[in-house]
């Protein structure tokens, strides 16, 4: 058994795949983290992310998978689900071992597992598109805090950029301490320093004058459209799991 | 802005609009234009009410003043309730500000009838026009067409709205006459026919000229109230099928009647909302639109009512045992779609996956097939399959014994009737 340590990026993963094939390794385990020259890591092979090696692997994948297939592989890695690297690696090996495109082979455990992860990540992405609640700040920027289970912020760029083209906005992943900012032209990733340790939402509690009014109107609307005689709490919670409530204006 | 007054209006006019079931915000293809606000095509549900229905659009009435006196409607003329009316600008402001905060996908605007059909329709159109032309708003707009509105107004509405709908209210003309004596079915069908023809014409023109403006790109829909009048499911679904076929409707919505008024023509106030029936009707509707079922296969003279205990596909299957068992590794997609417990996505996955290897129970389970239902109707790559010669009734009992209906808990009263 060989253990490979890589930096957690997609390029790093692809470089690791290159190493595995280059060194003809068979039983391998992938872990992510920073390389430290300590005794604990004696048995570990460090993978130094190398763009040209990663690209060679990517080109190979593109030959054997559809464009959508490569995209799906990228998204499942982006999910950052603990312990799933071995399945992703299994999938990649299966791709290279086969002469034909195996994307639809749902009888295979790796193909099936990737399809399951993809479903979870896509659902989270879709939920974020739905559950982001912007608050208008004094300078006219619309701010939203989120805490998704998976790292889906990069997958949200396209949606919000094409939707809110005429307003400045920021979506901040509180769990992972980084955000996405759109300045009317481009989006960029940003990190904010909340020195006093407070929640980001409190630190920039500089809401515009009418923000409170619209939040109240929205809460009222939410109450008014409910039909009490059809109450179904189980269904309600299935649609909006409780972990999302603290960022939903209508549930606060 | 007078916040208190707007809040009061919103409470009244959202409350009055909540019985409209349509909430879809998909099916359009409006893109963000010239760095404006919004786009429409995704169909995102932004929230869910405590009764579990999705909130996708700001669904409000322009006014709940109404000259009509329909027995089932809270806004009926003779009902003693608070009345209110939004101005055009108020609806525009609410829509824009809710949209900017990502609360909604767009606007669903309906209305009581102010004075006459055109007077009311003209105001609905003005809201949509203002949003599109003055605010470069590209979010979803669904306008409720007012029965009897003129063709000119309907045409203008189609230029600004993504979807238009006319409520049929009751599944049959007789039902409508009974509960809404002021209303005329022909007044509802005329605008539907006009819209259908305009949409067809627009599609043709778009093929010739790319610059042809969009006309109701998400098509038209309608809704019928179920359970206020004694129509059978057969009558309801036949009627839906007729409108799908003849008016190219995108959706028919079925709204289980919520008793809100005491009237001797209506079910008593304490009657339970027919939620299970409504659910079965939607399932049947899905079978017609996506699974290749003909309406007569689902309901017919021998079976005019949908079975409330089991879903309509299972119900069809146990009446047609001669079709089964289906070999998962060989059968056409169309036939696999008819197996209880196999949905659209699973069926497509099966057809994709069996090109690589023959599928057994383990794979089918992973693909997402509900084995507890499907196992009576299929064979696969395994020696284990249902060998007993079971009747449809036996199967129904087995399946019901091992599955707990999700409705049992919250609608005891309705269940104990059967």
UniProtKB/TrEMBL annotation, chain A:
Pfam families: DUF4130. It comes from the Bacteria. Residues 85-250 form the DUF4130 domain. NCBIfam families: SAM_7_link_chp. This is DUF4130 domain-containing protein. It comes from Mucilaginibacter celer. The lineage of its organism: Bacteria, Pseudomonadati, Bacteroidota, Sphingobacteriia, Sphingobacteriales.
Automatic annotation (TrEMBL), chain B:
Keywords: Iron, Iron-sulfur, Metal-binding, S-adenosyl-L-methionine. It comes from the Bacteria. GO terms for molecular function: catalytic activity; iron-sulfur cluster binding; metal ion binding. It holds the Pfam family Radical_SAM. Its cofactor is [4Fe-4S] cluster. Residues 61-198 form the Radical SAM core domain. The keyword Plastid does not apply. Signal peptide: none annotated. PANTHER family: ENDONUCLEASE/EXONUCLEASE/PHOSPHATASE FAMILY DOMAIN-CONTAINING PROTEIN 1, TYPE II SECRETION SYSTEM PROTEIN K. This is Putative DNA modification/repair radical SAM protein. It comes from Mucilaginibacter celer.
């Amino acid at each position: 058994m060989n253990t490979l340590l890589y930096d957690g990026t997609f390029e790093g993963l692809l470089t690791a795949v290159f190493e595995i094939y280059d060194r003809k390794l068979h039983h391998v385990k992938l872990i992510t983290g920073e390389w430290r020259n300590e005794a604990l890591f004696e048995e570990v092979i460090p993978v130094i992310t190398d763009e040209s090696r990663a690209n060679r692997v990517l080109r190979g994948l593109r030959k054997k998978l559809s464009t959508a297939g490569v995209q799906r592989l990228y998204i499942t890695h982006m999910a950052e689900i603990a312990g799933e690297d071995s399945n992703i690696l299994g999938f990649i090996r299966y791709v290279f071992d086969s002469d034909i495109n195996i994307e639809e082979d749902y009888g295979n455990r790796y193909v099936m597992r990737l399809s399951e992860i993809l479903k979870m990540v896509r659902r989270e992405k879709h939920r974020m598109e739905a559950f982001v609640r912007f608050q208008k700040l004094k300078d006219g920027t619309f701010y939203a805090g989120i805490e998704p289970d998976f790292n889906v912020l990069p997958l949200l760029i396209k949606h919000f950029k094409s939707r809110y083209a005429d307003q400045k906005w920021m979506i901040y992943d509180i769990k992972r301490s980084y955000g996405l900012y759109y300045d009317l032209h481009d989006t960029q990733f940003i990190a904010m320093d909340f020195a006093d340790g407070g929640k980001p939402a409190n630190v920039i509690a500089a809401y515009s004058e009418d923000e409170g009014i619209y939040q109240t109107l929205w809460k009222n609307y939410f109450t008014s459209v409910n039909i009490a005689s059809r109450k179904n709490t189980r269904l309600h919670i299935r649609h909006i799991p409780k972990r999302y409530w603290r960022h939903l204006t209508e549930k606060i | 802005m007078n916040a208190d007054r707007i809040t009061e209006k919103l409470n009244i006019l959202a409350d009055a609009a909540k019985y409209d079931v349509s909430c879809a915000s998909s099916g359009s293809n409006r893109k963000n234009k010239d760095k404006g606000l919004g786009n429409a095509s995704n169909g995102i549900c932004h929230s869910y009410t405590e009764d579990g229905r999705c909130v996708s659009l700001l669904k409000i009435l322009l006014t709940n003043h109404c000259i009509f006196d329909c027995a089932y409607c809270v806004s009926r003329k003779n009902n003693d309730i608070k009345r209110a009316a939004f101005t055009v600008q108020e609806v525009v402001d609410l829509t824009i500000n809710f949209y900017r905060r990502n609360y909604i996908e767009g606007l669903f605007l309906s209305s009581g009838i102010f004075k006459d059909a055109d007077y009311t329709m003209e105001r609905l159109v003005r809201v949509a026009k203002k949003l599109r032309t003055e605010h470069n708003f590209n979010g979803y707009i669904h306008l409720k067409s007012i029965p009897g509105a003129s063709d000119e107004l309907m045409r203008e509405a189609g230029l600004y709205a993504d979807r238009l709908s006319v409520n049929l209210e009751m599944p049959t003309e007789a039902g409508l006459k009974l509960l809404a004596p002021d209303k005329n079915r022909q007044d509802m069908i005329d605008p539907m026919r006009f819209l259908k023809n305009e949409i067809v014409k627009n599609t043709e023109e778009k093929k010739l000229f790319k610059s042809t403006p969009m006309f109701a790109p998400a098509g038209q829909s309608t809704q019928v109230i179920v359970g206020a009048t004694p129509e059978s499911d057969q009558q309801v679904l036949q009627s839906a099928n007729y409108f799908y076929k003849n008016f190219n409707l995108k959706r028919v919505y079925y709204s289980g009647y919520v008793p809100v008024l005491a009237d001797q023509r209506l079910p008593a106030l304490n009657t339970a909302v027919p939620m299970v029936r409504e659910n079965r009707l939607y399932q049947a509707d899905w079978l017609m639109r996506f699974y290749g079922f003909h309406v007569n296969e689902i309901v017919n003279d021998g079976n005019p009512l949908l079975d409330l205990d089991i879903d309509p596909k299972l119900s069809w299957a146990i009446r047609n045992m001669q079709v089964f068992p289906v070999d998962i590794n060989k059968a056409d997609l169309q036939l696999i779609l008819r197996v209880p417990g196999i949905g659209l996505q699973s069926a497509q996955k099966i057809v994709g996956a069996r090109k690589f290897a023959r599928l057994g129970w383990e794979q089918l389970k992973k693909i997402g097939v509900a084995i507890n239902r499907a196992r009576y109707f299929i064979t696969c790559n395994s020696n284990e399959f249902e060998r007993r010669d079971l009747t449809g009734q036996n199967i129904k009992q087995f399946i019901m014994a091992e599955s707990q209906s999700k409705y049992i808990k919250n609608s005891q009263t309705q269940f104990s009737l059967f």
